Fold this sequence. Notes:
Elements: H1 2-13, H2 18-32, H3 38-48, H4 55-68, H5 71-83, H6 89-105, H7 108-125, H8 130-141, H9 151-159, H10 164-191, H11 205-230, H12 236-254, H13 263-293, H14 296-307, H15 311-326, H16 331-348, H17 353-367, H18 375-384, H19 388-393, H20 396-411, H21 414-424
Amino acid sequence: MALISILFILLLIFGTPIVFSLGIAASFTIAAYDIPLALVAQRIYGGLDKFTIMAIPFFILTGIIMEKGGIAKRIIDLATALVGWITGSLYLVAVVAGTGLAAISGSGSADTAAMSSMMLPEMKKRNYNIDFAAAIMACSGSLGTIIPPSIMMVVLATISNQSVGALFLAGIVPGLMCTLFLLMSGYIRAKTNISESKDIHNFSFIFLVKTFIKAIPALTLPVIIVGGIVGGIFTPTEAASVAVIAGLFISLFIYREIKFRDLPDIILKAATIASTVMLIIATANIFSWFIASQQIPQKISDFMLGFSDSKIWFLVNVNILLLLIGMFMESISAILILVPVLMPVAIAFGVDPLHFGLIIILNLSIGMITPPYGITLFVASSIAERSIIDVSKKLILPLSMMLLVLILATYFPQIALYLPTNLLGYK
């Protein structure tokens, strides 16, 4: 374990891409243990030879279609009609729009890019604090990994042999809690900064009805995706492909914001992103297999149980560990490496595996907004043309709200388990 960890960390320090760091570290360690290197190719293939993983490229493609095809714009317009009349309106619009987009794309970075490119210019015009605006954009974008359909959830469910539908349902209540708490942070910020509360306009029922009617086609996507999976109509992979077809139909024939000539570029962009993710999954499978073959999870479990049998102590330490790892590692890679290690330990401590999966998702979602890695923070900062350091200084309030949700979801399991238990009969 020490050899593979040292090699992996050294390769990352020297700037080696994570996909190569995972593969090289695992391959050298396997060779050192006199295990045939042919096993590397077998595990790479085995890591991708899962039907559920095929959902990932489709969800990525759906996110890009959403951004380019006018779906994101209609969601943002509806959010503006819903909360645009409240103090700090554009902060609140960002949060509500982030929630709506999260229910479509499953990608935090795609949601952040779509919202930031549309909203940040308007926020600059209205004299909003652009650093706080970028910070709350980053936090809102991270909801894409908590609220179903989530690519991270698909990966976690696949490698931990859990129901994707149950994990999707487990993320709904914590995701909506994050939405509510982020709305509070935007409102508090605006109330304490007079210049950011001047743009209040009266609520318009007519405007709400108009934007809702225009957004109806876009709102059908989360119903199709989540409803189809939870209702047992189709698998996550089938749901993702249906979402692509529905998204294309809406964008091409209803909103008409993309043309057939745009499709090659859209598909190429999706393929580029998806190939990177799939390569990480493939190489991380070698890593995970070696850890499991050396009985590392069992050894860690025995050590921690011998040190303390407190479930609370274990969850405190896991949260700290995952928050730190999320600051430095890509989320899917972290799931692939850590879940095989931590899940058996959690079960040994009596933690429900579905609840523990949700805890991992929440932690790594927060990792997406914390520097230095923080992918959604990086995207929002880049579009805002502000440094990550400046934006990070304004993260304290919204980040503390998300940490509060993490604490509540960690120590009150029913927050995650209520819907799976009552709708799917999960036990």
